[in-house]
Amino acid sequence: MTATAGRPHVIGILNVTPDSFSDGGEHLDRDRAVEHARSLIAAGADMVDVGGESTRPGAHRVPLAEEQRRVLPVIRDLVADRIAVSVDTMNAATAERAVEAGAVLVNDVSGGLADADMARVVMSTGAMFVVMHWRGHSDRMNRNAVYTNPVEEVRREVERRVAELIVLGVREDRVIIDPGLGFAKDAAQNWEILAGYERFASLGLPVLVAASRKRFLAGVGSPADAPATERDAASAAISLLAAERGAWGVRVHDPAPTRVVLDVWDAWRAARR
To answer: What is the rounded distance in angstroms from the CA atom of residue 107 to the CA atom of residue 48?
Structure first.
């Protein structure tokens, strides 16, 4: 897992699912999934995040065996291609098998809350672990988008969850935090979270920003009713703003526009030096 010094890791999204909000069904076939992962790397991704269960609002859980059938062969193929891989899963058993297959990072949108065994898996494998802010599964998370002060409440809940994981034996230097844009948050709350980025950075842990194509970007730079793919320019703008604030990584569907804005940022910084 490499990234140019001083700029965030670019994590390319690979949904091996029939129902993801942006590209559901496009990469369900193993060969098409692997081909798309290669295109993500060619377009500027440093790592590919492979997920077999949609977490779009309203989505229902996928049986464990089906999730593993979708993602494990793809992960093995990508590792054989020397592509850095993360696994997007809430299931400890899937995470464990994915790391055994060569994944270097576990991206758990529940921060280990959905499966009590996840902390053990992360601790025993030594994998990097993305701890996202989470208030429940996708089929009910929207009703949990109730805050008095979104930034401070989300920050406090993330801090508490990281502390719990450390008590369970997870190494702090393996933890990356994600404030959970789009999860139990409405559009205004998502923008508040982004505007309050420094409060999350002040926890002293690497921060992953995962805004790509999410619903709160609808109408920003494109018509509100445009397809999710029309949100890539807005997503890239957030990648640039996250980079300027020192984010560890950005998670994107299309790395190409993010690579462009980061290349421009690099050239600007180099000229200043």
So the answer is: 11
**Domain-embedded: residue 4:** no
**Global pTM value:** 0.92
Domain assignment present for 19: yes
- Token pair for residue 15? 């949904």
Put the strands of the sheet holding 9-15 in their side by side order. Answer: 175-178, 128-132, 105-108, 85-88, 47-51, 9-15, 249-252, 208-209
Q: Is residue 124 part of a domain?
A: yes
Pick the catalytic residue from 76, 97, 135, 214.
214
CA distance 53 to 37: 17
- For the question of residue 199 being annotated catalytic, the response is no
133-157 pLDDT, tens digit per residue, is: 999 787 777 888 899 999 999 999 9
In single-letter form, the type of residue at position 107 comes to: N
pLDDT single digits (tens) 71-101: 999 999 999 999 999 999 999 999 999 999 9
In the set 7, 70, 161, 251, the catalytic residue is 251
Asked about 214 being catalytic, the answer comes back as yes
Domain count, the chain: 1
Residue 207 maps to which CATH number? 3.20.20.20
Backbone angles phi, psi at 190, to 5 degrees: -60, -45
Task: Give residue 225's domain range.
Answer: 9-272
Looking at the predicted structure, is the pLDDT value of residue 269 above 70? yes
